[in-house]
Amino acid sequence: MTFLLHYKSLFIDEQVSGIFTARQVARCLVACTFQLFAPTSWLNALAASMMSGVAVVTMMTPFDVVSTRLYNQGTDAAGRGLLYRGVADCFVRTFAAEGLWGFYKGCGASFFRLGPHTVISLVIWDELQIMCRRFGWTPKAKL
User: Fold this and answer.
1) What is the 3-state secondary structure (H, E, C) of the chain?
2) Separation of alpha carbons 22 and 27, rounded Å
3) Comparing C-alpha atoms, which of 61, 43, 39 is closest to residue 51?
4) For 28-32, 58-62, 124-128, which range has the lowest pLDDT when averaged over its residues?
């Protein structure tokens, strides 16, 4: 089933509210990814790891921006920050001054840093698991 057919089934089954939930769209994308490639293809791991790289960057960039701002601020003689009093203060001031998009400055650079790492790690991990199953090796759990 293609992405559009999955999306159509959401519209018929769950009405308009089902279409706009991120969980439903993600379900369609993942289901269609596995139907694009053979079940044992390394391209499944590639597509899934690329999606997880985007998710990681989306969730971590605000914290990355805040920590960078805290590290780069100057300090007074007592060692207190000159611009922000702490993490929460930095979040509030950034949101007040720049809005939500202020937390996503440098998002592209974060993806180019984390994307290849995520893709390479997950594709290699998936291929190692396939090789272990092929040769009949299963790790024994140690307590």
Assistant:
1) CCHHHHHHHHHHHHHHHHHCCHHHHHHHHHHHHHHHCCCCCHHHHHHHHHHHHHHHHHHHHHHHHHHHHHHHCCECCCCCECCCCCHHHHHHHHHHHHCHHHHHCCHHHHHHHHHHHHHHHHHHHHHHHHHHHHCCCCCCCCC
2) 8
3) 43
4) 28-32
pLDDT in tens, 16-31: 554 455 555 556 556 6
Kindly report whether the global pTM for this prediction surpasses the value 0.70.
Answer: no
pLDDT at 111: 87
Strand partners, 75: 81
- What's the Cα-to-Cα distance from 136 to each of 52, 66, 127, 132, rounded to whole Å? 29, 47, 14, 6
CA distance 75 to 65: 18
Q: Which residues contact 76 (CB under 8 A, 6 or more apart)?
A: 82
User: Are 107 and 61 contacting, i.e. CB atoms less than 8 angstroms apart?
Assistant: yes
